Amino acid sequence: MQLIIAIVIAIFIFVWQQKLYNRMWDERLKIDISFKDSYVNVGDNSSLIEVINNDKYLPLPVLHVKFSTAKSFEFDNKDNATVTDCYHRNDAFSVMGNQKLTRKLTFKATKRGTFFIQGATITAKDFFMTKTFAKAMEFNNVLYVFPRKIDTPEFDAYFNTVMGEIEAKKGLLEDPYTFRGIREYDVRDNMSKINWKASARSGELMVNQYGYSWEPKIKIVLNLDTNMMVRSEYITELSIELASSIAAEFLDNGISVGLASNGLDMNKQPLGELSAGTTMEHMVTIDKYLAAIGGNTELDGFMELIDKLVASYDRESTYIIISAYHREDLLIKLDYLKGSGMDFHMVVPYLDFQGIDNPREYMYQWEVEHNEI
Fold first, then answer.
1. The sheet that has 87-95: what strands, in order across it?
2. Per-residue pLDDT, 172
3. CB of 186 within 8 A of CB of 206?
4. Among 301, 298, 278, 282, which residue's Cα sits nearest to residue 290?
5. What does the domain layout of the chain look like in residue ranges?
6. Which of 48, 74, 84, 319 is the Cys-Cys partner for 108 at CB 3.0 to 4.6 Å?
């Protein structure tokens, strides 16, 4: 008789706990998977943060959290993970009642882009491990991986050349009605700038400093269609890195920077133009734009972009055109613009074995050794 009673009680407990778990397993269960950072640069380390909060008395002896993210993230902990077209992870937890667990997964970002954690599948078992419960969860967490910044003597030489031209142009456009201060005389100064009263007080020749009637602005125009069969993806990434690096240097020097490209985002929507800005927060906006690039509108889209810029040409801007494509149909158009007085430079990334057979004075040739890629 006692055995029968024990069996009945066991069956009752088993059925009762199954119904309890069926009704309450996901009640007040909060799960979040997010990135520690909003944005990082290529090569930086970051983390994924998993938070499990079981805000009820009912324990979850076995809880699995399955999610996917970019395979370009190199995780330190490779347990419970498989890599195919994405990085797939299946983490197991044992969560007591009213317990909060946090797990940090450190990784290295190796590729530029915009990466999401958009959802997860969670599964749980009842107390006797006889029944499985499942639920899909949605997230909207994003990490921007910004382009690598180029720091080479070649880049410094190019930037100093452009910066020197801008400074020379500023010097020619002083505003005599904007007084900036007084400094010592230099042999290159015009005698009309000498401040005789200040010179008498100091015992040395002093000259007036004036502001400028022209404030430099840079407009970066980026072509993402290389029209190349070899190493096209590498040259595209280099073009994006050049755009980011050039923008960062000019902003660091207090010069306004805008950006336009024939780029498409991951949803195949045109990225369009970014208006000019001067703050380092604007640099974050530029890098987010560049991180979002997932395709392009090809050469026709770039030609249309050039035509649009010509129609709205700003004579106070210096244009920097970054384009691996440099065939005659584009160069003839640029030759005409240069002859019409448009102030621009063209940066042409190319593979060393290809060469450039139609160079122009406004070109800066950025050679890439293919055997080092």
1. 39-41, 132-146, 113-125, 60-69, 87-95, 81-83
2. 46
3. no
4. 282
5. 28-146, 153-170+214-372, 179-212
6. 74
CATH architecture under which domain 28-146 falls: Sandwich (2.60)
pLDDT tens-digit readout, 181-195: 677 777 667 776 777
Read off the tokens for 324: 């691996």
- Nearest alpha carbon to residue 85 among 72, 67, 98: 72
**Does the pTM of the predicted model rise above 0.85?**
no
Domain 153-170+214-372: CATH architecture, name and number where available: 3-Layer(aba) Sandwich (3.40)
CB of 339 closer than 8 Å to CB of 362: no
DSSP run (H or E) holding 47: strand 45-54
Q: How many CB atoms lie within 10 A of CB 251?
A: 20
DSSP characters over 128-150 = TS--EEEEEEEEEEEEEEEPPPP
Distance, CA of 209 to chain centre: 40
Would the CA dihedral through 326, 331, 337, 342 be positive or negative? Answer: positive
